[in-house]
Each structure stands twice: as structure tokens, then as C-alpha cells.
């Protein structure tokens, strides 16, 4: 007679022992409109993940304070806080589910929660080992409409869609 509860307990115990990592990093968006291009950077990305290095299974949460983007222009940064509606949605969180190795590169797949919308995204990039830690660099493109965000405008010029998002994170064992 099999005991399904025993199998569930053993799988849960094995996963609970997956290595845990602290994540700290930076998010940069690159946006443009017909008269120019700019970037905004946010260094508040932080969280924790469990990562089974061999299988690529990930679980955890990494969040960014949406009030902290800095483009070097205080008026533009105030506009971005308005677009994100930071009083209602002060942060954006990513829940990674797996890391896929693709030759020299990797993709991190997971659910991004932004402006009350949850969508699966794929961040394509690279992963390098630094001692016991790892460095991830990756990027993805997205559109304002995917997150129910109003595209910002200046006079009669709207910000272009899509927007490029780059990420860099240091992932250290806990």
C-alpha cells in the first residue's frame, strides 16, 4: 500500500532544502519619443529565492519600489510616478519560476505583478558565477498597454511603445 502523504512530505522536504539566495539589484528602463531618448534607473530591487541549480526550478519574490526611478529629470520622474500610480501600486514584484539554460545564455521565466496586472514574462540574459554568488544580467521588452498603463505624453508627443527593461542582480547564498 502506498502512502501518498509520505511522497508529498518527502518532495516538500527535498524542496525545502533547496539553496536559498538573497537577491539585490537594479532595474533600468529605456524609453523614447520622437524628439529624444532617456533611461531611468532604480536600485531598490531586492528579495529572496530558492533555486535548485541543477533543475532550474525557482521560487521566491523580488520587488522594486516604483517611487525610486531616477532619470536625471525630476519632472519626468514625477510623471513616471503618476503613470505607475504609486499611491495605489507602490511596488512591482517578480516571482521567478524557472531558469532555462540556452547555450551561453539563460532565460528567467516568472510572473511580474505591475499596476495590479500579473503576466508571465521571460527575461533573456546571462548568468555568471562570482565565487559562491551569481551575477544575472538580462532584458525584456514590454508595452504600456500590457499593464493597463497610460502612455505618457509631452505636449502632443507620446512615449514610444515598447519600452526596453534591463535588469542586473547579484544572487548570493544565504
UniProtKB/TrEMBL annotation:
Signal peptide: none annotated. It comes from the Bacteria. Coiled coil: none annotated. Residues 20-170 form the Lipid/polyisoprenoid-binding YceI-like domain. InterPro entries: Lipid/polyisoprenoid-bd_YceI (IPR007372), TTHA0802/YceI-like_sf (IPR036761). PANTHER family: PROTEIN YCEI. This is YceI family protein.
Amino acid at each position: 500500500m502506498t502512502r501518498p502523504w509520505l511522497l508529498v512530505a518527502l518532495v516538500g522536504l527535498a524542496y525545502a532544502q533547496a539553496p536559498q539566495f538573497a537577491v539585490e539589484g537594479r532595474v533600468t528602463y529605456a524609453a523614447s519619443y520622437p524628439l529624444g531618448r532617456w533611461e531611468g534607473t532604480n536600485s531598490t530591487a531586492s528579495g529572496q529565492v530558492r533555486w535548485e541549480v541543477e533543475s532550474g526550478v525557482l521560487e521566491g519574490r523580488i520587488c522594486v519600489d516604483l517611487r525610486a526611478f531616477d532619470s536625471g529629470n525630476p519632472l519626468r520622474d514625477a510623471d513616471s510616478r503618476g503613470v505607475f500610480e504609486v499611491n495605489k501600486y507602490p511596488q512591482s514584484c517578480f516571482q521567478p519560476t524557472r531558469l532555462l539554460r540556452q547555450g551561453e545564455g539563460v532565460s528567467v521565466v516568472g510572473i511580474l505583478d505591475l499596476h495590479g496586472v500579473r503576466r508571465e514574462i521571460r527575461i533573456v540574459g546571462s548568468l555568471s558565477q562570482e565565487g559562491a554568488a551569481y551575477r544575472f544580467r538580462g532584458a525584456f521588452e514590454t508595452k504600456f498597454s500590457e499593464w493597463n498603463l497610460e502612455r505618457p505624453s509631452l505636449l502632443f508627443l507620446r512615449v514610444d511603445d515598447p519600452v526596453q527593461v534591463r535588469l542586473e542582480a547579484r544572487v548570493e547564498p544565504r
